[in-house]
Amino acid sequence: MISSGSLGLVEAFPNKIPHKPDYSHPKGTSPWPKYGEKPNANTPEVKAWAKLVDWSKVPKLPIRKVKSPGDAPECPKHDVPKSDCWWTCTGCYAPDDVVDCPGKNAWGLTFDDGPQPGTTESLLALLKEKNVTATFFVTGMKSAKAPWLLQDTLEQGHHLASHTWSHSGLTTLTNEEIVAELKWTEKYIYDHTGYKIKYYRPPYGDVDNRVRAIATQLGFTTVIWSNEWDTQDWQLEENTISSKQIVNIFKNDLQTLPKRKNGVITLEHDGDPKMITMARTLLDMGLAKGMKPMDIAQCLNDPVGYNAVPKKPEPKFESVKKPQEELSSSKNEPPKSSPIPDNADNKATTPPELSESDSNDESVSNDESISNGESISSGESVSSGESISQQSVKKVSGALPSSNAAGLSVALWTLAAVAASLVL
Known about the structure:
Elements: H1 44-50, H2 87-90, E1 106-108, E2 110-112, H3 120-130, E3 135-138, H4 140-143, H5 147-155, E4 159-162, H6 175-193, E5 196-197, E6 199-200, H7 209-217, E7 221-222, H8 243-254, E8 264-265, E9 268-269, H9 273-288, E10 292-294, H10 296-299, E11 306-308, H11 323-329, H12 390-399, H13 407-422
Parallel strand pairs: 1-8, 1-10, 2-3, 2-9, 3-4, 6-7
Antiparallel strand pairs: 5-11
């Protein structure tokens, strides 16, 4: 199956991060936004990132209201214009939103809100047992608490994507705050894995055309989930739903598969042990119905799944001899011929003597090839374009020794000398 790991892209990380229960920096020294808070939009980094956006192409839509910072927005009592394409309150999907997998029975397996030490490891073990890959939509703030889990996820061949930094509803943020949420998460993942993320999922699915326009210009693709395929497992942590209810929801979803032309993308989470137990149950149910779990990159036939990947390290080989050195070191190989000096008076000199060890080789006659297996006859041209007469050919063959152990080297030396004499 196509995944980041199966493509051999995970060769080495910039630095392998040790597993630590708390990877937080000493107080006041972390270069990253604070945990649980929206990133500050008034920083040099965010100002520089904001310049990547052509703001004339971003719709001037209202900032949505929210009861508590970080929550999903409230839907207004009045009708929302269709041109807003606000998913949260109208269920609108834009043409470029990733909602389904194109392939029949393809199952885009996704998990949000991690990484979470203690539960993400259990999920990784489950997926390894089932031999399937998934996409992990991680938040920047949780990644900063457990960056080794990003590397563990990639090493198992899974796919990383963004769930923003603080998990705030994006339509409730200013333009610059949206930039900060997306780019800080991208930067953290890139700095700690070498992978530059391509896909993001807006928290709560909260996206409108303003958010889309900003995200698209920053290089991100919006991924939501298939209609009615939210497993509702996030309620397990809040004890507002039972495991039996989730199973019944998923069972009803499975009954719609025969009528579907495309595959599906499901929404699950990895923030609580109860979610991992439920993930096993749902995975077994889907596999029994012929569903084919895969990460979003594979679901979309995207062979890379990122905007940038780590450069594979150059292979290290032992030093080897150059081809000419290998030839000259082989048995019975003639010594290298010396080129005619530039200041030679165009006079041929005597060819080098051959050792007695070469006397067993066959002789080269007038009819044998001298260069590249081709014989030189009267009227045949040499590199200078001049022809060699029959008498010259006899002169060449007579100058050759009876052994051809020197073969090509001596022949070439002799030809060069004869060619030089013709210029006289």
